[in-house]
Design goal:
Rossmann fold; five-stranded parallel β-sheet; 5 helices; 21% strand; globular; binds cytidine-5'-triphosphate
Length: 131
């Protein structure tokens, strides 16, 4: 049976921190599925409409060599349903979420990966705005 890894994120203004987390997630199994958060979810979660639309963000993530499948994450509350739907063996989250998804350990392995230092979409947007 192939080992399916699943992860979630906005992946707006795609940067090297995004690439690294997806590469490390892919290395934990045979197949990587990525839930890309919906525009509406981002507006609720981060109070900001993403620079790139969900359609564009999905297209970028889907085109990566390490990614096998993408879908739109409509709600943060549906994690368990998404894991079951995609038959995930491993859930990967950034360590900014450490401990927050341990309850899903009954249906899959839960791994928190350290973030790449000193880069984020928010910092990039702020940097460009100051130019
Ligand atoms: N990520 C990472 N290293 C970074 C930035 C993000 O490993 N420097 C990971 C996050 O932990 C998450 C995924 O990339 O697993 C998607 O994160 P996302 O929130 O879309 O990116 P950020 O750059 O953190 O965006 P923002 O500044 O809007 O919070």
């Amino acid at each position: 049976m192939p080992r399916t890894v699943i992860t979630f994120g906005t992946f707006d203004v795609f940067h090297v921190g995004h690439l690294r987390v997806l590469e490390r997630a892919a290395a934990l199994g045979d197949r990587l599925v990525v839930g890309v958060s919906a525009d509406a979810l981002n507006e609720r979660k981060k109070g900001r409409v993403p620079v790139f639309s969900q359609r564009e963000r999905l297209a970028i993530v889907a085109a990566l060599r390490v990614v096998d499948e993408v879908f739109v994450e409509e709600s943060l509350e549906l994690k368990r349903d998404y894991l079951v739907e995609h038959a995930a063996d491993v859930l990967v989250m950034g360590d900014d979420w450490a401990g927050k998804f341990d309850d899903l350990g009954d249906i899959c392995e839960v791994v928190y990966l350290p973030r790449t230092p000193a880069i984020s979409t928010t910092a990039i947007i702020e940097h460009i705005a100051e130019l």
